[in-house]
Amino acid sequence: MIKVMFVCHGNICRSTMAEFLLRDTVEKMGIGDKFFIASSATSREEIGNGVHYGTRRVLDRFGIDYSKKRAVQLTREDAGRYDYFIGMDDANIRNMVRILGDSTKVYKFLEFACETDDIADPWYTGDFEETYRDVMKGCRGFLEKLKGEGKI
Predict the structure, then answer these.
(1) Does residue 151 lie in a domain region?
(2) What CA–CA distance (Å, rounded) separates 38 from 11?
(3) Residues 6+ apart with CB under 8 A from 150
(4) For a designed S-S bond to 46, which of 10, 19, 28, 53 qualifies (C-beta 3.0 to 4.6 A apart)?
């Protein structure tokens, strides 16, 4: 099983969107049973809160259920539980390494799409459509990487 943890600052916008869109994608591909996909935050400020309304709108468009999702924080114990820790921006990456104590399984999401850009935080930009496009670009690149490595 491939265990993936998406990470952003608050776990209510970007990482949650990535979690549910990748899960939906692999289910539709018929390989959902090969994955365990989750998301978390580097901060504590949104812990326990539900999905941001902008992300809900994107997920609703695809009929994806997110109703049980509540923001959680990344922990050092997660380091041994997941194969990939995928952050949305440089600040996330720094905080992920600080929390996990190791960088060997930490990736910046758009690296998988051969880009160095951050996935802009729609909490600040208000542009959840741009975030959706970038998340899907990252998901496609990530799946291509796994395919190229013979993991899927």
Answers:
(1) no
(2) 10
(3) none
(4) 10
Predicted structure pTM score: 0.97
Residues, the chain = 152
Q: What's the burial of 136, exposed, middle or buried (CB within 10 Å: 0-12/13-18/19+)?
A: middle
pLDDT per position as a tens digit, 74-109: 999 999 999 999 999 999 999 999 999 989 999 999
Cα–Cα distance between 76 and 97 in angstroms, integer? 9
Total number of domains in the chain: 1
60 is catalytic: no
Distance CA(118)–CA(109), nearest Å, equals 8
From 23, 121, 134, 139, the catalytic residue = 121
**For residue 10, is it within any domain?**
yes
Give the pLDDT confidence of 101-118 residue by residue, as tens digits.
989 999 999 999 999 999
The tokens for 59 are 């997920």
8 is catalytic: yes
14 is catalytic: yes
The reply to whether 123 falls in a domain is: yes
Catalytic residue among 14, 23, 78, 89: 14
Domain membership flag for residue 35: yes
